[in-house]
C-alpha cells in the first residue's frame, strides 16, 4: 500500500472515531440517565426508544444564535472551543486499537506526549473564562485551573507506575508487556488514574468549574449555539479518551480471547464499559465541595500514587 494512502486511511479512521464515538457516548448518556433517574423525556424523540434525541439536540444547537459578548476578547473567545477539542484529537492518534500496528501513530514516547497534550485542557478553560468578560466565567476558570493543575500530578504519577512496570513509554509496548496479574498489582494506580481523569475532564462529581447551581455554567456561561456544542463534544471526547487510556494502560488493551483477530473488539468493549461507569458515577454522586476536591487530590490520590510508584520500583528491582 502506498505511504500516502496508508496515511490517509489512518487520518480518516481517527477523524471518524473523533466524531462518531462521542456521539455514541452522548446518546448512551441520555438513555442511561433516563433509566436510572426515571426521566422519560429522552425516550420519545423519534419514536422507538427515543433514537432521535441526539439529532434533536444537534438541530437545537445549530438553530441557536451565535452570540459573542460585547466586551469579550473576540479572537480568544472564538478560539477557546477549538483549543478544548485539540488535545483529545492528538491523544486518539496515539491510542492502539489492536495488535500489529493498529494505531494511527505509534511513538516510543507516546505516553509522555499524551500526558503533555492533556495538560492543554487548562489553557482552553482559562481562555474561555478570561475572554468572556463575565465574573461567573472567570470564577469558573480559576476553579478549573486549580482543579486541573492539582489532578495532573496523580494522573502522571499513576501513569508513570505502569510505564515503569512495562519498561517503556510506548502505548502499544505497554499493552504488549501487560499481564493479567497487573489487574491486582497496578489496581491502586488504575483507580487513581481513573479518578484523576474524571477530574481532568471536569465530569461529575468533579464539575466545580461549571457548577450550574452557583456559577450559572462557569467558563461556558457566555457560549451559545455551535460553540457551546463544541465544549459538550470536548466533554464526550474526553470520556472516550480517559476510558481508552485506562484500557490501554491498566486493562490490557486488546488482550482477550483470540486477540490477533478480535483485539480491536476487546479494546472497544472495555472503552464502552468504562464510559458506562463514568456516566453511572455522574448519576450516583453529588458534586464535591472545593475543599473536598482538593483534599481528595492531595491527601489521598497523590500519596496513593506515590506508594504505588515505590511498590513498582521494589517489584521491578526484585524481578
Could you describe the 3D structure shown?
With 319 residues, the protein is mainly α. It has one domain. Helices cover 72% and strands 0% of the residues. It has 13 helices and no strands. The protein has helices at residues 3-37, 53-63, 74-94, 110-118, 121-131, 135-166, 171-177, 182-185, 187-200, 212-215, 225-250, 259-284, 290-318. Helix 9 (187-200) packs antiparallel against helix 11 (225-250) and helix 9 (187-200) packs antiparallel against helix 13 (290-318). The longest helix has 35 residues, at 3-37. The protein starts with a helix and ends with a helix. The mean pLDDT is 87.
Q: What is the topological layout?
A:
Layout: H1 3-37, H2 53-63, H3 74-94, H4 110-118, H5 121-131, H6 135-166, H7 171-177, H8 182-185, H9 187-200, H10 212-215, H11 225-250, H12 259-284, H13 290-318
CA-based shape:
globular
Amount of helix: over 70%
Question: What is the number of domains?
Answer: 1
Structural class: mainly alpha
- End-to-end CA span: 42 Å
Let me know the average pLDDT. Answer: 87
Write a brief structural summary.
By secondary structure, the chain is an all-alpha fold. It has helices spanning 3-37, 53-63, 74-94, 110-118, 121-131, 135-166, 171-177, 182-185, 187-200, 212-215, 225-250, 259-284, 290-318.
Feature tags:
319 residues; mainly alpha; globular; translocase; transmembrane helix; quinone; oxidoreductase activity, acting on NAD(P)H, quinone or similar compound as acceptor
Amino acid at each position: 500500500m502506498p505511504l500516502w494512502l496508508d496515511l490517509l486511511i489512518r487520518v480518516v479512521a481517527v477523524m471518524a472515531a473523533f466524531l462518531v464515538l462521542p456521539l455514541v457516548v452522548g446518546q448512551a448518556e441520555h438513555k442511561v440517565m433516563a433509566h436510572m433517574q426515571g426521566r422519560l423525556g429522552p425516550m420519545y424523540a423519534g419514536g422507538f426508544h427515543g433514537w432521535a434525541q441526539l439529532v434533536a439536540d444537534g438541530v437545537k444547537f445549530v438553530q441557536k444564535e451565535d452570540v459573542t459578548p460585547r466586551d469579550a476578547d473576540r479572537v480568544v473567545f472564538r478560539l477557546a472551543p477549538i483549543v478544548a477539542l485539540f488535545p483529545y484529537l492528538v491523544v486518539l492518534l496515539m491510542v492502539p486499537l489492536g495488535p500489529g500496528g493498529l494505531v494511527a501513530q505509534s511513538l516510543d514516547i507516546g505516553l509522555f506526549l499524551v500526558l503533555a497534550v492533556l495538560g492543554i485542557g487548562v489553557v482552553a478553560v482559562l481562555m474561555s473564562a478570561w475572554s468572556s468578560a463575565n465574573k461567573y466565567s472567570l470564577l469558573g476558570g480559576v476553579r478549573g485551573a486549580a482543579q486541573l493543575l492539582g489532578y495532573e500530578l496523580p494522573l502522571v504519577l499513576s501513569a508513570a507506575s505502569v510505564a515503569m512496570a512495562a519498561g517503556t513509554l510506548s502505548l502499544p509496548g505497554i499493552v504488549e508487556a501487560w499481564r493479567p496479574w497487573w489487574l491486582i498489582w497496578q489496581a491502586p494506580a488504575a483507580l487513581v488514574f481513573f479518578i484523576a481523569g474524571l477530574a481532568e475532564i471536569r465530569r461529575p462529581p468533579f464539575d466545580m468549574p461549571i457548577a450550574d447551581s452557583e456559577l450559572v455554567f462557569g467558563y461556558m456561561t457566555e457560549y451559545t449555539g455551535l460553540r457551546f456544542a463544541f465544549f459538550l463534544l470536548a466533554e464526550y471526547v474526553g470520556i472516550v479518551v480517559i476510558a481508552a487510556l485506562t484500557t490501554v494502560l491498566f486493562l490490557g488493551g486488546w488482550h482477550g480471547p483470540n486477540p490477533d483477530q478480535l483485539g480491536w473488539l476487546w479494546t472497544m468493549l472495555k472503552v464502552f464499559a468504562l464510559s458506562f461507569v463514568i456516566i453511572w458515577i455522574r448519576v450516583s454522586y453529588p458534586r464535591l465541595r472545593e475543599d473536598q476536591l482538593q483534599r481528595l487530590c492531595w491527601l489521598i490520590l497523590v500519596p496513593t500514587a506515590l506508594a504505588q510508584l515505590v511498590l513498582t520500583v521494589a517489584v521491578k528491582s526484585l524481578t
